[in-house]
Amino acid sequence: MPSFSLPGLPSPDVLKSYRIRDSYFTPSHSHPGADGKSRLISDIERSLPAIHLGQFEKLCFFPHVGIGTTTDPQLEKLLRTNPQVVLEPFERWPDLLFGMIQVNAHNVAASLDAINRWIADGPMRGVYFPGGGPAAMTCTDRNVHQLVERVADLNGVIMQHTWFKTGGKQGPGESTPTELAELAAQFPEQSFLCAHAGGEWEQGIRAIQDFPNILAETSGFDATAGFLEMAVRELGAERIVFGSHLPSRSLGTELGKVLGAEISERDKQRILGENYRRLLDG
Amino acid sequence: MMPRVVMNRRELLRGTLAVGAASWAASATQAAEASPSDEQLPLQIIDTNVSLFEWPFRRLPLDQTGRLVEKLRSLGVTQAWAGSFDGIFHRDLQRANERLAKECERFPELVPIGSVNPTLPHWERDVESCANRWKMPAIRLHPGYHGYTLEDPRFAELLEMAEEHGILIQIAVAVEDQRTQPTMLRVPDVDLLPLEALLRSRPKSRVQVLNANARQASQAQWINFPNLAFDVSRTDGTDAVPMLCKILGVERLLFGSHTPFLVPEAAMIRVHESELLSSEDLRQVYAKNAERWLRGVQS
Q: How far from each other are the two terminal CA atoms of chain A, in whole angstroms?
């Protein structure tokens, strides 16, 4: 341990007081390893120093469950036939981790089965709609509606990947915050998490501003100054939830966005933990 | 947020790194010599990558110099190498650099880093002014915004001229992620590959790359160039900094935050968050490497 104080962070007690809930933990986000877990476990372990340094209380990640969300057919079969593999990280870190399954709107039947299997019967808390890979589908598609309806029945949480990319979408299945707003307007009782606040957040915040059932998630782009000041001003702090994007992004980038923002301590508490706890716990 | 590295104004002014713009080099040398490895000393932080004045596409919370310096002080930064956004967007760089030099005189922590655009007529005059008139220890280049590549022969001339004047060159690979840039001003990242041949032929040149991501900084061809350093402002990933230290050598990573475009806490936490670097490695990245590079000693 260094003899000097490490810069940039408040004291551990202050961090602990935030009761940080990470809504966007991304260990091996696109592939957990050929055996369904080794890369995933390794990435979680790689993140632990930052998780402990930040005094995180709980983190949500997005497991693949064998419904075509990767391009690896052998992995898909393994995850489908051996669900214990999916559960292993949650059993190893039961106080730290919880999950929301990645769904595949191209395969509605399998996704509905998975929603019933993993959310209705537990232990997953919701779904993640990816923005890239084989399962990406623009969220205005009717297939997505069918899945949202079922998740809403089960009081699940919905995280939708979004980006407004300068120059246009990276792939045809990517969704923008404007498209999420279109979806959210049809489910006013259901809450949606707008992952990455649209990336280009000045447009993202505007796009979701009039939809109180959409909350902005904070990770996935550089720690550009002014983001949270605008988000708090336009959305209100109660509509913003923290995400770490660890380990591919750094604690510095993502926690620094909140710690370094010129917003009140009360708003930091809301963003870092309170809002997500409220969403999950009702 | 309560700062954990505290230095009050008096300590700052008394400290070996608290220097006026004109005497930055001598003081930095003294600082390096006065505190070679004392574990008990508070951590020094030199931010090699800040910019003054306004970003044209957004009001940044710290775009007023007084507020910027106040924030850097609260985080324990003892010296900051300051370029300017004017240096990116203005063509009258004499005026832009003069404004920067004058502004830096108001704050003992700030070391002015003038901008040079080698596509402008008589750009050599800007190098001369930065080196001789304003005694700047470095110049900052923005090839992407100024419309040239590192293969441009004028860049090679600039490199030679900087070496003759004993000044460091900072090259900004980017200022903003291409995915979030304004539609009216889309600027690709600078291709660094031409540096390989140039630095091989000019081993005494000193170049620091700013705002590179971890992938750009970790390319294998940079391993053998001790005269090339990177800052950590956009080297994202929880263990990216120790990974780069392993690939490049810890002495080639300099702390830089890209404040006020980015929040300074981001890079500050990133350096230590993996808990993989020793205390001495941390001291090197946060300040000692910058001191050495400013004195012209790369390793």
A: 41
**CATH number (domain holding residue B178):** 3.20.20.140
Q: pLDDT at residue B8 above 70?
A: no
The domain of B275 spans 9-30+42-295
Asked if A225 and B279 come within 8 Å (Cβ–Cβ), the reply is no
> A14-281 falls under which CATH superfamily?
Metal-dependent hydrolases (3.20.20.140)
pLDDT attached to residue B220: 82
By Cβ distance, the residue of B180, B261, B273 closest to A53 is B273
Q: For residue B130, what is the DSSP state?
A: I
The pLDDT assigned to B230 comes to: 97
Contact between chains at B4 and A262 (C-beta distance less than 8 A): no
Residues with Cβ within 8 Å of B269's Cβ and at least 6 positions away in sequence, in order, are: A7, A8, A9, A250, A251, A252, A255, A256
Query: Tell me, what's the ipTM?
Result: 0.97
Q: How many domains does chain B have?
A: 1
Do the domain assignments include residue B3? no
pLDDT digits (tens, 9 = 90+) for B210-238: 999 999 999 988 988 999 999 999 999 99
> Across the interface, do B265 and A11 touch by the CB < 8 Å criterion?
no
- Residue A7 has its nearest CB partner, among B62, B75, B178, at B75
Residue B36 counted as domain residue? no
Residues B241, B250: Cα–Cα separation, whole Å: 9
- Is the CB of A4 less than 8 angstroms away from the CB of B43? yes
Residues in chain A: 282
Question: DSSP label at A34?
Answer: T
Q: A148, A187 in Cβ contact below 8 A?
A: yes
Whether residue A203 contacts residue B181, with contact meaning beta carbons closer than 8 Å, is answered with no
**Cβ contact A40:A89 at 8 Å:** yes
Residues B141-193 have pLDDT tens digits of 999 999 999 999 999 999 999 999 999 999 999 999 999 999 999 999 999 99
